[in-house]
Design a protein that fits this description.
The complex is a heterodimer of chains A (119) and B (346). By secondary structure, chain A is α+β, with helices and mostly antiparallel strands. Chain A is 63% helix and 15% strand. With 346 residues, chain B is an all-alpha fold. Chain B is elongated. Classes of the chains: A alpha+beta (119), B mainly alpha (346). At the A-B interface, helix 2, helix 3 and strand 3 of A face helix 2 of B.
């Protein structure tokens, strides 16, 4: 990667990141219906096959909290203070709408791919 | 562990100051848990090389801290198209006003010099940068207030949504796909009138009345006479007309009269400067002199100076206009050629 990236690779990388961005938010909101702190959330997502960099996930949690979608609290666990996140009531509502949107997009894209016999 | 502390300390320096302790405490807890997991997996503490590899993989402190910064734009994507449009307009008009002011200053000076023109041209980049800086500053303030106080700008949100297709400007002449090519009749007429004009021009020295009409009599009575430099001007004008006629004839012969002829237009403008420069560079800037200076100098001396000075200034203005026209046409042609190349790209 990095400086030796060709133009085509760069275009692909940008599109890939764009595609992932929305999906990551949805996955994080879905996973946080159950309380987690940053590291265990990352592990839980990785276990389901969704690897996220620390430098992407932890700021994303902050951003979602600022937007009111997550609630957080500091609590001691295993002799260490950790910040636990969970979906706020507002987050629940928005997550429901996003999920609906996601399913509609997914169904539409799958249908287009089916028609074109890509799958 | 010391390396992790140093890493966190470096990250802290780039974090937003009002939240840095909170963010750092959370980051520390997460990274320490991750470190513990890794150590439990291999059954020993990470050595220095492994620690370095892990931290490197996390990203540089500046990169990690940067992700915690809110997304900020100097000029955001909503405002940017307007910003860019205003920027181009502002620079164009600023240059136009600057050119007029400088032209007036230079030509109203007692002795307009070429170095004054060069000095004014060298100040152009500074004028452009200052204009761009002011426009950027104004739009940055607009962006900031729109982002931070959205309620104060209820009207701006509706400006873009409330446009009407009916208010679109009418099609411009020469719009894409609408440009009418030159007809054969126009091309033939250009040649015919070119020949008539050339014949007329060649007859003028023998029959000045063709140019001056009844005023020709005044030329004989007037105490003034034209200097020989006008002959150079005249023959350059004849030569340029022959060139132009040649181009038109070649277009007809090669059945190319529908072409754009941008190069010809630009070349004609640039070559047209030659006769003007010949007059501007006339020895002592004398274009008109007294027929009998010994008799008439006292009476008409100052008139002679005024006439020469006036013609010289007028020629400089015409020269500047022709140069600007040529620069404009070259710019337009380069832009059109660039667009054509871009459109042809796969």
């Amino acid at each position: 990667m990095g400086y030796s990236m060709t133009l085509a690779e760069n275009v692909f990388e940008n599109l890939r990141l764009e595609l992932r961005r929305g999906c990551l938010t949805l996955a994080v909101l879905a996973q946080l219906r159950q309380e987690h702190y940053g590291y265990t959330l990352r592990k839980a997502l990785a276990l389901r096959g969704l690897e996220i960099d620390e430098s992407t996930l932890y700021p994303l949690l902050r951003r979602l909290e600022t937007q009111g979608l997550l609630a957080s609290e500091w609590r001691e666990e295993e002799k260490r203070n950790k910040r636990f996140y969970s979906l706020s009531p507002e987050g629940e509502e928005i997550f429901g709408k996003l999920l609906e949107e996601w399913r509609a997009i997914n169904a539409a894209v799958n249908s287009i791919l089916d028609d074109n016999q890509i799958l | 562990m010391d390396l992790l502390e140093r890493y966190l300390q470096a990250v802290k320096k780039y974090l937003p100051w009002h939240r840095q302790d909170d963010i750092l405490a959370e980051l520390r807890a997460n990274l320490e848990s991750q470190l513990e997991d890794q150590e439990a997996e291999i059954g020993r503490p990470l050595n220095n090389a492994e620690m370095e590899r892990w931290l490197k993989q996390l990203g540089s402190p500046m990169q990690v801290a940067g992700r915690y910064q809110p997304q900020q734009y100097l000029i955001g994507p909503t405002v940017f198209p307007t910003y860019w449009y205003v920027m181009r307009l502002a620079i164009f008009w600023m240059l136009a006003v600057y050119a007029i002011v400088i032209a007036v200053q230079i030509f109203s000076a007692p002795d307009p010099t070429f170095s004054a023109v060069v000095r004014a041209a060298l100040r152009v980049p500074g004028v452009m940068i200052a204009t761009a800086a002011w426009v950027t500053l104004i739009f940055a303030v607009l962006e900031y207030t729109m982002t931070h106080y959205p309620g104060k700008w209820p009207a701006t949100a509706n400006v873009l949504a409330e446009w009407s297709p009916g208010s679109l400007p009418p099609l411009e002449r020469g719009a894409i796909g609408r440009k009418k090519p030159r007809s054969f009749a126009t091309a033939v007429a250009e040649v015919v009138f070119g020949i008539i004009f050339l014949i007329w021009l060649l007859m003028v020295p023998g029959h000045p009345v063709l140019m001056f009409g009844p005023g020709e009599q005044y030329m004989h009575l007037s105490p003034f006479q034209l200097q020989p430099v006008w002959w150079q001007f005249y023959w350059w004008a004849v030569a340029l007309n022959i060139c132009q006629l040649g181009w038109h004839l070649l277009d007809l012969v090669h059945r190319n009269w529908q072409g754009e002829r941008v190069a010809q237009r630009i070349a004609a403008k640039l070559l047209g400067l030659i006769p003007l420069v010949v007059l501007i560079e006339a020895p002592g800037q004398l274009l008109v002199t007294l027929k009998n200076p010994a008799d008439d100098l006292a009476r008409y001396g100052s008139t002679e100076n005024s006439i020469n000075d006036g013609i010289h200034r007028a020629l400089l203005v015409v020269c500047a206009i022709v140069v600007l026209q040529a620069v404009w046409e070259i710019g337009q042609a380069s832009l059109a050629s660039y667009r054509k190349r871009q459109a042809a790209r796969p």
